[in-house]
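User: Hi! I'm working on a homework problem where we have to compare a predicted structure to a textbook description. Could you give me the structure for the chain below?
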Amino acid sequence: MIDISNLSKVYHTPYGKVTALKDINLSIEKGDIYGIIGFSGAGKSTLIRCLNRLEEPDTGKITIEGLDINSLDKKSLNKTRKKVGMIFQQFNLLDSRTVFDNVGFPLELDKVPKKEIKERVEEILDLVELTDKRNAYPSQLSGGQKQRVGIARALANKPDILLSDEATSALDPLTTYSILELLKDINEKLNITIVLITHELDVIKYICKNTAVIEQGEIIEKGATNDLFINPKSVTLKKFIEILSNFQENGCYQGGDGI
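Assistant: Happy to help. Predicted structure tokens:
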């Protein structure tokens, strides 16, 4: 489904070169929920944004269902992006538009007939359980409801892939749990491949079938999520597990699977 080979990205700043990604190699199977975890600045967001070329990699190759996206011209890239939905941490909703119009916005841009837009939006709102909020505005919604709108909008063009960029980090634990349940439901019902980046280990543990650990732009460990938890090899993953254990023991944190 998604194959990443020898991917690298360097930023040129006034203070010198910053290597964001270095020789990334990953394979993600169709229908998987694949997690990428790392501390802040590890390169997670750069990696996920390279998958739809919101960031241009310097070297390497990304293929999606056998299509080399690095070689696509602008027109072909725009067509491919419609099959890659993206969910953002801060929702990125249009405040002046209702829930219905926010979800239908990508279809409007594609000049889809109004009747088809209505049918598609109603279908998605039912899926994300927001039919009763169709005429509400973002300011009238809770954080979890806003993220459901963001997910619905990402589904508008019937994508094959969902990219989740820290989609739950601005939410409380109970709302995080409900969003993860929704993503699992979407994955199962629609067989959509989900690539989820996060710094929240409990999110990875709860939803991801496979996981890669990224540190300073490099993948330092990857495999089945359960196997990684049972036998972590990298110092980074061991730190994540230790931090999560300490929070849970001290009653300072309640993750999704503790709800």
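For your comparison, note the following. The chain has nine helices and ten strands. The radius of gyration is 19 Å. Good luck with the assignment!
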